[in-house]
Specification:
Oligomer: single chain
Helix content: 10-25%
Shape: globular
Strand content: 35-45%
Largest sheet: 16 strands, antiparallel
Order of helices and strands: HEEEEEEEEEEEEEEEHHE
Structural class: alpha+beta
Number of domains: 1
Number of strands: 16
């Protein structure tokens, strides 16, 4: 058996164990409630172009355009304490819901683990997230994603390495990393999200069709999911300019992060997720997550020229 196959099997085995965690964490709770006010989407056309380098690094309001990456604005980038997207190493969030595939609703689970690894992307030290995505009980994607927070509290997505699987076999790995092949970092969470801010780039990598944008739709909302009920919820609409009319709605609770995912318009996946549990991993669980993330990184170096151009992730 070749090493790449062994690594994929190792990931699948770990994924199976995490599914057991998911089952164990699920319990009886109140039925989810919709937010008190549904978001009104701003659907004006947005040109699929990266922000001009001449703009300010601050996020403009309605009279200006979106944030611009400023290399001099990252004094402590791996401390991510934005209230709507905190990323403390050892945090694991488990989501459950459904997604539409070929007009069939399938069970969908997502497990996001903030590792204790950091990695330099485009000259900025980043926090490494290890994510697993299951459809109908089968691992369909494993991903490493990289985040950094600037001095204004904006959390930037610096890139990602997703591996997509079908029947246990790798079928695609559309890696993009800021600073390579023209890719640019994008905003995952604004430091001061307000209604009226123009849509902002969430990343710019046209080579892999990653040109997603986000826009604040509502603030001060309330919602209940399996994990808990939350107040002061922020609602963001995410969209790809190549998919006109399709919006994914994400709900963020202070001190937790993303607690719910919905959709509107012509989104074919019709993904719906809610937070099932959020936990802090034990020392042993963190070590296992770290090793799994490093195994995925090792495989990324083997299959991706983009990833091969970056230094290795290191433990904090």
């Amino acid at each position: 058996m070749e090493m790449s196959e062994m690594r994929r099997l190792g990931l699948a085995a770990i994924a199976g164990l995490l599914l057991l965690v998911l089952s164990a964490c699920a319990g009886e709770s109140a039925e989810p409630e919709t937010p008190t006010t549904l978001p009104t989407l701003v659907t004006t056309s947005v040109a699929p172009a990266p922000p001009p380098a001449a703009e300010s690094s601050r996020c403009a309001r309605v009279e200006g355009s979106s944030c611009v990456f400023d290399y001099d604005n990252f004094d402590n980038p791996t401390v991510i304490d934005n209230p709507y997207l905190p990323m403390t190493p050892g945090t694991q969030l488990i989501y459950g819901g459904t997604t539409n595939e070929d007009n069939e609703l399938l069970e969908h689970q997502v497990i996001i683990t903030v590792t204790d690894l950091t990695k330099v992307i485009d000259g900025i030290n980043t926090v490494v997230s290890w994510d697993l995505d299951f459809s109908d009980g089968e691992l369909v994607e494993a991903e490493l994603a990289f985040f950094a927070q600037d001095n204004d509290g904006n959390v930037w997505r610096m890139g990602e390495h997703p591996e997509e699987y079908e029947d246990g076999q790798l079928v695609e790995a559309p890696t993009w990393l800021a600073g390579i092949n023209g890719a640019k970092a994008g905003i995952s969470m604004l430091g001061n999200p307000e209604v009226g801010i123009l849509s902002y780039s969430q990343g710019w990598a046209p080579d892999v069709d990653f040109i997603d944008r986000g826009q604040v739709q509502q603030v001060s909302q309330a919602t209940c999911v399996e994990a808990d009920c939350y107040q002061d919820v922020l609602v963001i609409a995410e969209f790809n300019v190549l998919e006109a009319g399709a919006f994914q709605l994400k709900y963020f609770a202070p001190g937790v992060g993303n607690v719910q995912v919905g959709w509107t318009g012509t989104d074919e996946t019709q993904e719906e997720l809610e937070l099932v549990s959020v936990a802090s991993l034990t020392f042993a669980e963190m070590a296992d997550a770290r090793e799994s993330a490093l195994a995925l990184e090792e495989h990324a170096y083997e299959i991706s020229d983009v990833y091969a151009a970056t230094p290795a992730a290191v433990r904090r």
